[in-house]
Automatic annotation (TrEMBL):
This is Carnitine dehydratase. Pfam families: CoA_transf_3 (PF02515). Keywords: Transferase. It comes from the Bacteria. SUPFAM superfamilies: CoA-transferase family III (CaiB/BaiF). The keyword Transferase applies.
Length: 395
């Protein structure tokens, strides 16, 4: 079947996490994504891993995670021949995405104003840590720093713990979704008007935007959230909202009526706290009282018992357990593909279901320069010229 973005060509100068995740989403939807990499070393994320683990013994799981459905063209961007190739691609492409520090692309001759002269319809997205100018323009913009500056780390953890970052690159990943939302809306605008444009995304504002309700409280009240000593899962929430230890693991109990919870736990004394202000003021006391009951039985016991009463509860899984969750299996939330050096690679599937234009993994994450010849042939280069480029170090 045709894909939602079939016919859209993306010139991808991104590296590390945020930019590659965004262009991967476009590739999942059918766009032809041409990933421009440094000749030799390629994307910096190829050398990054966790747990000292390499898929198939050679491939970075971090790189594989964000680079499927792309073709790789490895160039020495400082050569005149490479510049000519980029300009040829820009003439054909609908979208350009880059996440270098401000000014880098312009110095290379690949800034928005440069490529707009070649293709006035081009949609050009630049993503940075803090924006294109301002007092932080020269600062490195990395996920942990953005979490820290945005206030997010002060919302997580217990009262006596230091500010705590989330256990995933949340700023980068939310930034990627903001890139995609900006690009798709720009494509629609161009479809109506024929006019391209430049987009500027920065991680700092993206993460501020994804704390809208927290800022709605603090900016208007002048008050800060206070983290509880217990496991209440959000500093603005009342008990029983949190993660609880059971006899064999953990479970979460979300927002629930206290009388129902008291009945299920067999602790009628909980009803003494059944007042919104009391549940906030004494949330630690309530949490630890609930914890004392929950730890006596298994997770499965409590989840079944509470779901019978239509309570908001669930198991707490680790990353190995969630793959076998019945709902994950039903949704086909995980899948695999074959890679020329890593072998069979397990991964998370495309999350959005389309009735007419389903997304899919149709290309493995490319090896460095895997598609050099294929892409150059499409631009009209002969086999002899391509061989000469190899010999002279252009590709």
């Amino acid at each position: 079947m045709d894909k939602a973005l079939s016919g859209i060509k993306v010139l991808d100068f991104t590296h590390l996490l945020q930019g590659p995740f965004a262009t991967q989403m476009l590739g999942d939807l059918g766009a032809d994504v041409i990933k421009i990499e440094r000749k030799g070393s390629g994307d910096s994320y190829r050398a990054w891993t966790f747990l000292k683990y390499w898929v198939g013994g050679t491939e970075s799981p971090c790189y594989l995670a964000f680079n499927r459905n792309k073709r790789s063209l490895a160039l020495d961007l400082k050569t005149p021949e490479a510049k000519k190739i980029i300009y040829q691609l820009a003439e054909q492409c609908d979208i350009v995405v880059e996440n270098f520090r401000p000014g880098v692309m312009a110095k290379l001759g690949f800034g928005y104003e440069d490529l707009k002269k070649i293709n006035p319809r081009i949609i050009y997205c630049s993503s940075t840590g803090y924006g294109q100018d301002g007092p932080y323009v020269d600062r490195p913009g990395q996920d942990l720093m953005i979490q820290s500056l945005s206030g997010l780390t002060t919302l997580t953890g217990t009262k006596d713990a230091p500010p705590t970052p989330l256990g995933t690159g949340i700023a980068d990943q939310l930034g990627a979704y903001n890139i995609v939302y900006g690009l798709l809306s720009s494509l629609y605008y161009r479809e109506k008007t024929g006019i391209g444009q430049k987009l500027e995304i920065n991680l700092f504002q993206c993460l501020l935007t994804h704390q809208l309700q927290e800022f709605a409280v603090t900016l208007n009240s002048g008050k800060l959230f206070e983290r509880p000593q217990s496991g209440i899962a959000h500093p603005g929430q009342s008990a029983p909202f949190g993660i609880y230890k059971t006899a064999d693991g953990y479970m979460c109990i979300s927002v629930n009526p206290i009388p129902v919870l008291a009945e299920v736990l067999g602790d009628e004394g909980l009803n003494e706290y059944n007042d919104p202000q009391t549940l906030y003021d004494k949330r630690d006391e309530v949490f630890f009282r609930i914890q004392a009951s929950v730890v006596k039985q298994t997770t499965a016991y409590w989840v079944e018992k509470m779901l019978e009463r239509d309570m908001w509860v669930s198991e707490v899984y680790n990353h190995l357990q969630v793959e076998n969750d019945p709902q994950a299996v039903h949704l086909q939330a995980f899948t695999s593909y074959e890679h020329p050096t890593a072998g069979t690679v397990r991964t998370v599937n495309v999350p959005v279901k389309f009735s007419e234009t389903p997304g899919e993994i149709h290309r493995h994450p490319p090896l460095i320069g895997e598609h050099n010849e294929e892409i150059l042939r499409e631009l009209g280069y002969s086999a002899e010229t391509i061989e000469e480029m190899k010999q002279t170090g252009v590709i």
